[in-house]
Amino acid sequence: MVAISRVRLLFGAFLLLLAVVLFPSGMTAHHSWGKYHWFRTTNMLSLDVGDNLSLGWGAYLDAAVRDWNGGSSSVPSVLTLTVRTGEVDPVSCPPTTGRIEVCNAAYGNNGWLGIAQIWVTSGSHIAAATTRVNDTYFNQAFYNTPSWRQMVMCQEIAHDFGLDHQDENFNNPNLGTCMDYTSDPEGPPSNVHPNAHDFEQLQEIYAHLDGGGGTGGGGRGRGRFGGAPIMPPGFAQVPVETRSQWGRVIRGNARGALYDLDLGNGNHIFTFVIWA
Q1: Of the candidates 28, 68, 66, 272, the residue with the CA atom closest to the CA atom of residue 172
Q2: How many helices (H) does the chain have, and how many strands (E)?
Q3: Looking at residues 256-270, what average pLDDT do you find?
Q4: Separation between Cα atoms, residue 212 and residue 39, nearest integer Å
Q5: Does the structure show a pLDDT above 70 at 3?
Q6: How far is residue 104's CA from residue 99's CA, in Å, rounded to a whole number?
Q7: How buried is 16 (Cβ within 10 angstroms: 0-12 exposed, 13-18 middle, 19+ buried)?
Q8: How far apart are CA 200 and CA 202, in angstroms?
Q9: Taking CA atoms, which of 48, 141, 208, 256 is between 20 and 30 Å from 171?
């Protein structure tokens, strides 16, 4: 019995050592945002991204879209993102079915630097998404740098198609991805672009195809892009502009948080926040 226990102990220690070697501290093997994904019926996920940004932000959105479309990654992307002219008021930044709306404004001293929000139907399908970046903080010297602007833009729109963070400890060494929380996005290595692990995770998230139509609050039908579900009546008008409207905190720390506004029948509005 003692010999068997000793073998088990040694085997457990070996597995722990293997985990440390393969997955360094702070880096997760899987960093999908729950099971949330866009409905699709083809191998590539095609999404329009609405540019509701002022001139100072457009270049950062363009760079993030190029990155997530594959950029210089050695791992093929499953995304085809296309920047389109914005269709919404950037101050309220309401959702548009079947696409991502990206906005900026001076949203005030409310504590947050950037926000990603997704409108989920059927419990898992993203019907619409938005990203907001807060000029109240980005106009301050500390955050008003190309590396901070690029990291936050790259990270927030990635939440909009289903990616979570690789690391949420701001004090860990940079992983070389915008999906890594950091106090120094410039690095080295810089945390302003995705890395290969991000694209591998996207391939896993979108490994399956969705058949038929998406379900949206009791009705069936496809949106304009990729078969996105149609949102139920009133879903897009639910106010989610301020912290008090985001629902319950699922997880969080001093630098980031995830909120869930559960509206029933598989309809949720999730809010990912990076605090300033």
Answers
A1: 28
A2: 5, 11
A3: 96
A4: 10
A5: no
A6: 17
A7: exposed
A8: 5
A9: 141
Cβ partners under 8 Å of residue 260, min gap 6: 247, 248, 250, 268, 269, 270
**Mean pLDDT, rounded, for 186-190:** 97
Q: For tokens 């400890």, what's the residue?
A: 169
| CB distance 93 to 132 below 8 Å | yes
Domain locations along the chain: 28-275
Contacts of 4 (CB under 8 A, 6+ apart): none
Strand-pairing partners, residue 81, are 47
DSSP H stretches of helix in the chain: 2-22, 55-68, 135-138, 146-159, 196-205
Q: Is the pLDDT of residue 2 over 70?
A: no
Q: Give the three-class secondary structure for 272.
A: strand
Tokens found for residue 224: 């304009």
What burial class does residue 234 get, using C-beta atoms within 10 Å of its C-beta: 0-12 exposed, 13-18 middle, 19+ buried?
Answer: exposed
Contact indicator for 221, 33 with CB cutoff of 8 Å: no
Please state, in angstroms and as integers, the Cα–Cα distance from residue 134 to each residue in 57, 69, 177, 240, following that order.
11, 25, 21, 15
Instruction: Calculate the alpha carbon distances from 72 to 53, 63, 186 in Å.
Output: 25, 12, 18
CATH architecture, range 28-275: 3-Layer(aba) Sandwich (3.40)
**For residue 105, how many C-alpha atoms fall within 13 Å in the half-sphere facing its CB?**
15
Residue at token pair 């502009």: 241
